[in-house]
Design brief:
By secondary structure, the protein is of the alpha/beta class. It is built from 16 helices and 8 strands. Strands 3-2-1-4-5-6-7-8 form an 8-stranded mixed sheet, with helices on both faces. Bound molecules: nicotinamide-adenine-dinucleotide and SN-glycerol-3-phosphate.
């Protein structure tokens, strides 16, 4: 593919960020740094009030100073009225309901960019498929990759993937990438939303497995095995859904998997760590405002894989431990008892520089 000068594309000036959690707040800050006018919708009036009065989101992203130019509101219509692009940044299981509301107030033809990571429980649909139903006919993209909100907010160098749903949406993808990139937030363009989204959903579940392994006292060997075999699970599911294995080797697959599986900053990894140390899932989740997507996605990805006849043994083990009460040693023994098999590693096609 020919390389294009993305800076020359003109994109949206006004951006609505729908979702005032950690990631929505960090993305709002990034869009401001990229020179956009940004409005942020938060569901909780106390979050809106704290941003407007104290210039901070103490509930979801404490300690990060937010500039005066960030306009926050709990009125979705006000936030979306003049937007030229909308970032949808609510947890996966709430995305449909929120997208349906956004559809009623976002001007026609304005693109929606999905920033949630997961699969919908009731339908088994990917997030862009959910939004296609909730906001029919909208130009659509998905943004994903290795991004801890706090590090993005701190302006640390970060790279992500932005994929458009339609192959012929090259202009949309490049415009959005140019509009939201900063000197430290580097957006690569892809045309494989399926590969991008499967990576984002499944890595959360594998991160729970890695945290659990560390929690019970296993070290680097076990983590490397889980990451590598977890990547194989992502590739199998992505391919079964029509995605490309090359995408899974990229930022939204291997990149995000490596990040989330290796750091206690990850909510999913630290949830697993707690499980491995003997805490219950209920106790670990009680009273926390932040989402641990891998908990529900352990069910959604395995339900989907079972329907498609795809084997995801690590995700199944996480589901059994978190949702079915299987003791961790039993789940680990079952994984290790699986028949020995050939390691099927096919080379990806050459990648453009
Ligand atoms: N935090 C990160 O570092 C990060 C990075 C990349 C992607 N993501 C993804 O972004 C999405 C949002 O995560 P986050 O980290 O911003 O959330 P968060 O854990 O910081 O906050 C929880 C969010 O859920 C919202 N919420 C709670 N109940 C709701 C309801 N009934 N309806 C609608 N919204 C409701 C809250 O308003 C809040 O915005 C998730 O899919 C997550 O995987 C997060
Ligand atoms: O904290 P986690 O585990 O939800 O991960 C956050 C982001 O998805 C990392 O890319």
């Amino acid at each position: 593919m020919q390389r294009r000068d993305m800076q020359s594309e003109s994109g949206p000036e006004a951006v609505a960020v729908v979702g005032g959690g950690a990631w929505g707040t960090a993305l709002a800050l990034t869009a401001l740094r990229a020179g956009r006018r940004v409005t942020l919708w938060a569901r909780e009036p106390e979050v809106v009030e704290a941003i407007e009065r104290r210039r901070e989101n103490p509930v979801f992203l404490p300690g990060v100073a937010l500039p005066e130019s960030l306009i926050a509101s709990d009125d979705l219509a006000e936030v979306c009225a003049r937007a030229e692009a909308a970032l949808l940044v609510v947890p996966s299981q709430f995305l449909r309901a929120v997208a349906e509301q956004v559809e009623t107030v976002l001007p026609r033809g304005v693109p929606a960019i999905v920033c949630a990571k997961g699969i919908e429980r009731e339908t088994g649909l990917l997030m862009t498929q959910v939004v296609e139903q909730a906001m029919p006919g909208r130009p659509l993209a998905v943004l994903s990759g290795p991004t801890f909100a706090a590090e993005v907010a701190a302006d640390q160098p970060t790279a992500v993937t932005l994929a458009t749903a339609e192959k012929d949406e090259e202009t949309l993808a490049t415009q959005l990438a140019a509009a939201l990139s900063t000197p430290t937030f580097r957006i690569y363009v892809s045309h494989d939303p399926v590969g991008v989204e499967v990576g984002g959903a499944v890595k959360n579940v594998i991160a729970i497995a890695c945290g659990t392994a560390q929690g019970v006292g296993f070290g680097a060997n076990t983590r490397a095995a889980l990451i590598t075999r977890g990547l194989a699970e992502i590739k199998r599911l992505a391919e079964a859904l029509g995605g490309a294995r090359e995408t899974v080797s990229g930022l939204a697959g291997l990149g995000d998997l490596t990040l989330t599986c290796s750091s206690e900053q990850s909510r999913n990894f630290s949830f697993g760590l707690g499980l491995g140390r003997g805490q219950t899932a209920e106790a670990l989740l009680a009273g926390r405002p932040a989402v641990v997507e891998g908990v529900v996605n352990a069910v959604t990805v395995t339900d989907l894989a079972r329907k498609l006849g795809v084997e995801l043994p690590i995700c199944e083990a996480v589901r059994a431990v978190v949702h079915e009460g299987q003791p961790i040693p039993e789940a680990m023994a079952a994984l290790l008892r699986r028949p020995l098999t050939r390691e099927q590693v096919t080379l990806d096609s050459p990648i453009a520089p």
